[in-house]
Amino acid sequence: MDVVLSVVAEVTGAGPHRLTDSFYDFGGTSLDAIRICLRVGRELGVDIPPETLLDSEDLAAFASAVAPAGGAR
Q1: Cα–Cα separations (whole angstroms), residue 18 to 14, 21, 46, 69
Q2: Phi, psi at residue 48, to the nearest 5°?
Q3: What is the pTM for the complete model shown?
Q4: Residue 64, Cα to own-chain centre: how many angstroms?
Q5: Where are the domains of the chain?
Q6: Cβ proximity of 40 and 3 under 8 Å
Q7: Are 21 and 59 a contacting pair, CB within 8 Å?
Q8: Is 66 exposed, middle or buried (0-12, 13-18, 19+ CB in 10 A)?
Q9: Confidence at residue 47, expressed as pLDDT on a 0 to 100 scale
Q10: Class of 2-66 per CATH?
Q11: Which of 1, 2, 8, 70 is the most buried (most CB within 10 A)?
């Protein structure tokens, strides 16, 4: 989950964020979602469509959705 919080803070230029924050709470845009999903996907070695972030209730739900079978980093 740390990788999600780190990437979100870097991409949005805002932070620190909590796992209970919604992507929309800090003014996330569709372009931010694309950047976040690409970077988190690279870190975790998975493909993440932006809809995964856009449809997540909060950052914890997003992190759970993208976590590899071995658990989130």
Answers
A1: 11, 5, 23, 23
A2: -125, 110
A3: 0.87
A4: 10
A5: 2-66
A6: yes
A7: yes
A8: buried
A9: 94
A10: mainly alpha
A11: 8
